[in-house]
Amino acid sequence: MNKSVKLPPDRRIGVIGGGQLGKMLIEASRPWNVKYTVLENDLHCPASSVADKVMLGGLKDAEAIRKLALECDVLTFEIEHINSDALLEIEESGKTVIPSARALKTIQDKGIQKLFYREHAIPTADFVICDTPSNLSQVLQPFAGEKVVIKQRTGGYDGKGVDIVTKKDIESGVYISPGPCVVEHFHPEITEYSVIVAADRHGNVVTYPLIEMYFNPQSNLVEFLFSPAETTADLEADCREAAMRAVKYLQSPGLFAVELFVTEKSEVLVNEIAPRPHNSGHHTIEGSYTSQFEQLNRILLDLPLGNTEMVQPSAMINLVGAEGQSGPYKLKYTKELLAEPGVYVHLYNKTEIRPHRKMGHITVMAEGLQALLEKAGKVREWAVFE
User: Fold this and answer.
1) Peptide bond into 99 cis (omega under 30)
2) Cβ–Cβ under 8 Å, residues 197 and 249
3) Which H or E run contains 256?
4) What is the predicted pLDDT for the residue at 134?
5) 55, 64 in Cβ contact below 8 A?
6) Are the CB atoms for 281 and 213 separated by under 8 Å?
7) DSSP states of 58-118
8) What confidence tens digit (pLDDT) does each residue in 1-25 have?
9) What is the mean pLDDT of the segment spanning 118-143?
10) For strand 314-320 and strand 222-227, is the pairing parallel, antiparallel, or unpaired?
11) How distant is the alpha carbon of residue 342 from its chain centre?
């Protein structure tokens, strides 16, 4: 290790955002006694139960971010919708920010992100940027098919800000974009995958096994995933190559989740990049020798990258609020879940449930893929709140 790098107990990491990703990042650091300060506008945020300090402030408040930087050795973030200009200023003053502020600025605007793919010949769905919502119907001509995908350029999260709409609805004014957006070709027959890519400060890069994802059609949230994906070795290699290419051109250390589409013609297309731990990597907490959260801790602390191999095939089931649920909550089948071997329940310390709100997740592990899918099917029936 470089002599200038302090051992973990002497390090303090600052996290912008105190949600469940920050909570799990801090939990993964506990064997090393790393100190964490979280910036959040709620003192009772999910990460508050494990953080050494919660600093009250807005995620776009430049002065609050500067204050966080003053007391921490390195900064990271668990959500994209933050003040990247303030981070860039802090980075240029010499403070370490991982991922870099420039990488964040590329990713947090979906229009800029799509242009980045085009500039670097990274395969992605055909698109047109529409900055004037009233002109939306005028940009539809390049797209075949009856439907298109509309993505808001900024502010979208957890499935929000993405709509699949018919051209007819756009042309007749039934659908009007609420702001600047990206219009994408709609592929009706796709399989969705994710590759978690970890890049350290010295140019070393590793990937996790390919993850196959299934989304709720109403909320656009991942509701179920498993790894290794049920696909060919060649297709997995193509997915990993596309993901690593995308991360390479960001030129930043960090942990990145690269979401991919594979079309009916077996084309691999990069959909989006998340510059942080991601829902699609939660199964790695138990399912991999090094979880995505430990991996990011290693990168932040300038330690060697960890082993990304799987301990066993594993699946993840999201625990979300159902339609009509609000207020206090509890798991309905806690005893059944905790009695099942190879099943691990994670709750996010959120004070109240709401429809489609992520409240936790369940990891399921088994010795083989078929056994895993069978067990996960049973566990999914127990993944409900009351």
Assistant:
1) yes
2) no
3) strand 254-263
4) 84
5) yes
6) no
7) -TT-HHHHHHHHHT-SEEEES-S-S-HHHHHHHHHTT-EESS-HHHHHHHHSHHHHHHHHH
8) 445 555 566 789 999 999 999 999 9
9) 92
10) antiparallel
11) 24
> Would you place residue 155 in the very low, low, confident or very high pLDDT band (cuts 50, 70, 90)?
confident
Strand, helix or coil at 190?
Answer: strand
- Domains, in order of start, for the chain: 8-97 (3.40.50.20), 126-185 (3.30.1490.20), 190-380 (3.30.470.20)
Of 257, 127, 284, the C-alpha closest to 192 is: 257
Element (H, E) at 233: helix 233-250
Please state, for a pLDDT cut of 70, what percent of the chain lies above it: 98
Q: What is the pLDDT of residues 295-351, one digit of tens each?
A: 999 999 999 999 999 999 999 999 999 999 999 999 999 999 999 999 999 999 999
What does the DSSP 8-state code read for residue 50? T
Backbone angles phi, psi at 383, to 5 degrees: -85, 60
Residue 339 host element (H or E)? helix 334-339
Q: What is the pLDDT of residue 6?
A: 55
Structure tokens at 7: 């051992």
Is 98 within 8 Å of 200 (Cβ atoms)? no
Q: Tell me, what's the pLDDT at 220?
A: 80
Least confident of 112-121, 155-164, 274-283: 155-164
CA angle 42, 43, 45 (to 5 degrees): 65
| First vs last C-alpha separation in the chain | 50
Strand partners, 272: 259
Three-state DSSP class for residue 172: coil
Q: What backbone torsions phi and psi does residue 235 show, to the nearest 5 degrees?
A: -65, -40
Type and span of the H or E element at 22 = helix 20-29
Which two tokens mark 206?
A: 């590793």
Whole-angstrom CA distances from 204 to 149, 164, 303 are: 35, 38, 11
Residue 181 has pLDDT above 80, yes or no: yes
Query: Could you write out the DSSP letters of every residue in 310-337?
Result: BSS-EEEEEEEBPTT--BS--BTTHHHH
Q: Please report which helix (H) or strand (E) contains residue 167, including its range.
A: helix 167-171
